[in-house]
Amino acid sequence: MGERRVDYLLIGGGLASANCARWLREAGGDGEILLVGRELDPPYNRPDCSKGYLRGEESREEPLFRPPQWWGEQNIELLTRTSVTGLDLQARSARLSNKQEVFFEHALIATGANVRRLNVDGCELEHIYYLRTLGNADAIREGVADAEEIVLIGGSYIACEVAASLTMMGKRCTLLMQEQYTLERGFGARVGRFFHGLLEAHGVSIHGRDELERFEGHERVAKVITRAGLELPAQAVVVGAGVTPDIGLAQRAGLEIGARGGVRCSSRLESSTPGIYAAGDICEYESIVHGGASVRIEHWDVAFNHGRTAAMNMLGHDVGHEDVPYFFSVLGDWGELEYVGPAYEWDEEIERGSIEQGAFTNWYLKDGVLRACLSFGRSGELDHARRLIAAGEPLDDGARGALRDPAADLGAVAP
Ligand SMILES: Cc1cc2nc3c(=O)[nH]c(=O)nc-3n(C[C@H](O)[C@H](O)[C@H](O)COP(=O)(O)OP(=O)(O)OC[C@H]3O[C@@H](n4cnc5c(N)ncnc54)[C@H](O)[C@@H]3O)c2cc1C
Questions:
Q1: Sheet of 236-239: strands edge to edge?
Q2: Which of 82, 165, 300, 304 maximizes ligand 1 atoms within 8 Å of its Cβ, making it the mutation to test the pocket?
Q3: DSSP string across 237-302
Q4: Predicted structure pTM score
Q5: Which residues have C-beta within 8 Å of that of residue 288, sequence separation ≥ 6?
Q6: Which of 327, 137, 153 is nearest to 240 (CA)?
Q7: Ligand 1 atom having least distance to the Cα of 115
Q8: Residues 175-221: tens digit of each pLDDT
Q9: At residue 412, what are phi and psi to the nearest 5 degrees?
C-alpha cells in the first residue's frame, strides 16, 4: 500500500483518541482525520469491561463511544485492527501495520496502557485472566461459567469491581492482596476499611497483607498458593495488578518520557515535539490544577477531557488543561464511589456524614489545602471540592469545620 497525507492522525483506538476526533469536528475542524486503533472494536468505554458488560447485562454495542455509523457521518476515517508500528517525527510520518505510510500535520498519541502480568510458577495455566478489553471480558464470562470459586489478585478497583460483578453472578470470590484494606493505596486506610467491609458484607473473602506465591493445577488452574502459605481453591483467577503506560511507540520515536513514566507534555498536552500531542493513560502533563506539578492519571474522565484539550490545541486555540481529574468506581449494585483529585499525599482527612452509616464525603488536605475528595452517596459535594482544589488555597479552621458539618453550606466556604 502506498503513501497518503492527513491533517490529523490519531494513534490509538481508545477514548482519548475518540473524543479528540469528536472535538476536532465539533470545534469546527474540517481537515482530514484518520484514527488508527489495533483493537477489533471501534472506540468504546473501557469501564464497562468490569461492570455491566462483564456480567452479560450489556450488548457489545452499548459500551461504544458512538454508534458505528457516526464515524462516517462525521467524515472521520476509522481504521480498526491496525497498529501504528513506527513514527518519524522529522518527516512527520507514521508507518502502519497495513504497510501504509501516512504523512500528517498534527498527531495525537494515545496508546493507553497494558496490564502488568505476573510471572510466577503456574502462570501459564488455563483460566488465569487479565482484563483490559471487551474481548478479555468475554473470555472471563465464558471461563467462569463452570467455576464455583474464583480468586481475584489485587486490592485496587479492578479486582474489587470484578469481585462484585462475579459475586452478583453467583460465584464465590476470594480476593488476595498486599494491602491490609482494599483501595487503601489511593484513598487511605479508613476509607479502604469501609470498602473492604462492604465487599465482605456481600460475601467476598479477603486476605490482605499477603501475596501470590504461585498457581497450581493440571492444565487448568486449581489453587492459588500465597506467600503466607494459604492454599486458595480456584477454578478461575482474575488478576488486577495494575497497568503500565504503553509508551513503546513514543519512546522509539524519540519523544521525551517523564519521571512518572508517561510522554512528557506541557499543560497544553503538547509533547517535546511541536504539533505532536499525547492524551489519556500515557500522557504525563504539567497540571494547572496541581500547581504545575507533573501528573499522569489513568482515569476514564481524564482520557475523555484530554481528547478535547488536545483537539482544541491542534485547532490553534492555545488552551491549558484545567479540569480537576474525576474518577468513579462501581461495585455492582452495592454502591459507587466518586473521587476528584488525586492526592498523592495528604496529612489530614476530614469526614463529612458518616462512614459507619455508609453515606460520606472524605476530604484530603495537605498543609491545609484541599487536594482530593471522595464521595460515597453524596455526589452533590464534588463540585465544591473541584472549586476548592482548583483554588489551591489553605482553608482556615472555620472552612474546615464546614467541610465536617453536613448541615453547613459548602457554597459559602472560601475561597
Ligand atoms: C476493566 C477496566 C475498568 C475501568 N474502569 C474505570 C472506572 O470505573 N473509572 C475510571 O475512571 N477509569 C476506569 N478504567 C480506566 C480507563 O478506562 C482508562 O483510563 C481509559 O480507558 C484510558 O483511555 P486511553 O484512550 O488513554 O487508553 P486506552 O483505553 O487503553 O486506549 C488505547 C488504545 O490504543 C490502542 N493502541 C495501543 N498502541 C497502538 C498502536 N501502536 N497503534 C494503534 N493502536 C494502538 C490500544 O490497543 C487501545 O485500544 C478502567 C479500565 C479498565 C481496563
A1: 128-130, 236-239, 149-153, 172-176, 205-207
A2: 300
A3: EEE---EEE--HHHHHHT--B-TTSSEEE-TT-B-SSTTEEE-GGGEEEE-GGGTT-EE----HHH
A4: 0.97
A5: 267, 320, 321, 322
A6: 153
A7: 53
A8: 999 999 999 999 999 999 999 999 999 999 999 999 999 999 999 99
A9: -90, -5
